[in-house]
Amino acid sequence: MRFLLCPAALALLALGLPAALSLGCQRYDPVQHAPLSAAERSAVRRLGRDRWVDVTTVRRGDGGVLIASTRQGNQHIDYRITILDDGSAKIERLPIVTFGSP
User: Fold this and answer.
1) Which of 63, 22, 61 minimizes the C-alpha distance to 9?
2) In Å, how far are 15, 42, 75, 94, 97 from 31, measured between CA atoms?
3) Where would you tag: which of 35, 53, 79, 89 has the fewest CB atoms within 10 A of its CB?
C-alpha cells in the first residue's frame, strides 16, 4: 500500500525532523468522496483489499454499474462492480489498457 505525505510533512522530512511522521496527513480515498451505497462502498474496498491495489477512481458506467479504476505499473485496469439482488457484489475485470511502448 502506498502512502502519500502532505507538503508540511515533506518539508519537515527535508529538514531531518522525525516528528514529520506523526503528522496526521491522509491519502486521498476516492471511495469516501463518491456517492455510493453501503454495499457499493464495501465492494470497492474489497476490490482494493483482495487484489492489493489502490483504487484511483470510481465512476458509474452504462446501466448504473460501478467502474473502479486501478493503476498497476504502466497498466490501467478497470473492474466492473455489479450489486446483485441479494446484496452481494459481482466484480469483473475489464480488458487491460497499457500505456507507453510495449
Assistant:
1) 22
2) 34, 9, 21, 20, 23
3) 35
From first to last of its 102 residues, the chain has per-residue pLDDT tens of: 445 556 665 565 565 544 444 445 545 555 555 678 888 888 888 888 887 778 888 888 777 788 888 887 778 889 999 988 898 999 999 876 666 655
**C-alpha 48 chain-centroid distance:** 6
Would you state the cell numbers that stand for residue 63, as one nine-digit string? 446501466
Which of 44, 47, 42 lies closest to 60, judged by CA? 44
Whole-angstrom distance, CA of residue 90 vs CA of residue 95: 16
Three-state DSSP at 69 gives strand
